[in-house]
Amino acid sequence: MTHAWGILAHPKREWQQIKEERETLTHLYEHHVLLLAAIPVVCSYIGTTQVGWSLGGGTTIQLGYLDALGAGIVFYLVILAAVYAVGKVIRYMAKRFTRPPSQSQCIVFAGYVATPMFVSGIVAVYPLIWLCMLAGVIGLCYTAYLLYIGIPSFLGIDSEEGFIVSSVTLAIGVLVLEALLGITVLLWGYGERIILSLIGG
């Protein structure tokens, strides 16, 4: 968890430290991703069951505890898979360079790059659509910054090549984020209706 604070406060120094530790995927998931990915899930669970999603115009959708639990489990698994998928994208992009990083390095990198997105999930405790969108945009902007400074130093790709990898990764990351936001709204906002329609059908 020390890296979580370091990557937000002094990312350049932290990237070097993480690189020197040669972290494994198991360690990354056990000590970073599994914990931080729980932030948006737990906060969404609390917000959805206690406050309810505010869609504007006085409309609020509130889920029961069991419905929210089911949505939370799916949401959590999707986040974990998204980290892995972004790592694979980085690996695919980096293959053409002279000394490409390993797949493990790329997934570790993706796990730490996602830190601002995980932390921004705190706002889901009070789930207003516009507030969650704002937090997501801020998290995405800081994630972009981490990408641009981290790819050359952590993955050993020079700045010019790193810019290309960063740009493509960011573009795909935005698509992943949009998909996650869509899934979030469906699961947490309309989860009960979807479940009821499936049971009814």
TrEMBL record:
Domain Yip1 positions: 5-178
Record bears the keyword Membrane: yes
Keyword line: Membrane, Transmembrane, Transmembrane helix
Domain of life: Bacteria
Membrane-spanning intervals of the chain: 33-53, 65-86, 106-122, 128-151, 163-188
Membrane topology: Multi-pass membrane protein
Locations listed in the record: Membrane
Protein's name according to its UniProt entry: Membrane protein
Organism: Halomonas salina
Lineage, uppermost ranks: Bacteria, Pseudomonadati, Pseudomonadota, Gammaproteobacteria, Oceanospirillales
